[in-house]
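re the bet — no i am not wrong, look at it urself. input seq straight from the record:
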Amino acid sequence: MVNWHNPILILKDYLALVKLNHVLSGIYIWETIFTAGFELDVLRGKRPYRWTIWIYLGCRYTGLLSFIFFFIDTDGGKISCQPFDVVNFALPYASWSLASLIIVLRVIAIWDRNVIVSLVTVGAWLCGLGFNVWNLTLVKAEYNAILDTCITVNTHKGLINAIAVLAVDSVLLVTMLIGLLRHVHRSSFGIWYLLYQQCIIWIFLATIAEVPPVVFLILDLNDPFNEMFTAVELVVLSIGAARMYRSLSNRGSFTEYVSPSDPAYFSSNIPSFGQSRRRGPISTHTSIHFAPGPQAHSRGTISEAPVFVPADHIQLEFVPGASDLSISASRVKVDAGKEV
């Protein structure tokens, strides 16, 4: 039988933990850099400013700082272990809490700001935040001369906090699903498209990622294994919440629910004609060639005659469910065989 508390095995497990966290940090840094255009567009005024952007930024960059402090903790040699390890736990907790807050705001929007749902979700989030703060008081770190770094030595005490975080996010996921089911009748696309459009897959993956840390903390094999999937949970939850925020913000307001069948949803996805590239000026009196229309001949056959309409009489309309923009002409009289 394997002795998981063998010092040599603990050393190997800890080195595996360090390698895994380095890989995950690379994924997180890559995601942060290549999606930074969203917040840059907000700062430059290309996107509308909303107060929720600060929660989004806090979620992303506290997670990034947590990996930076992890590098210092594991590669920085002998340092003051206890306060540094508390910060090393506080930053991921802050990122998790802000990611969960993003989910809370979306749940409230889906439920159309229902008072009871708002109180339940905010209360659940505050409970999770309280458990995170309480767990910080239990952190204990020591310097390991063999590894030449600080290690956490009582990781099994984080079990209650891990269960609380999993319970809170599970409640938020279930509440969000129930809220979306209330809107199925308003959507002509079906429940699966609605779940995809509302980015539920990210919340589902984030909740699933919280299960392995709870399982390993229950098994309590050794300290490195107890922390093995903590960084995985951080990466999946933070990236998932951030992607949900960006995706829904691109379709409209993150704090407002817009059904895919509503005109507001389509208007938020139609590209601005003012931002399109034009090679030359467009005259408002330019004639546009429509699809040929029917014209009767003496023998009873029907041929197609072209129809021309001035551009200033054209009105673009978007019809939900149609593949193209429909064009309607106002105050236009068409004479057979003539240009109007």
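see?? The mean pLDDT is 76. told u. also The chain has twelve helices and eight strands. so pay up
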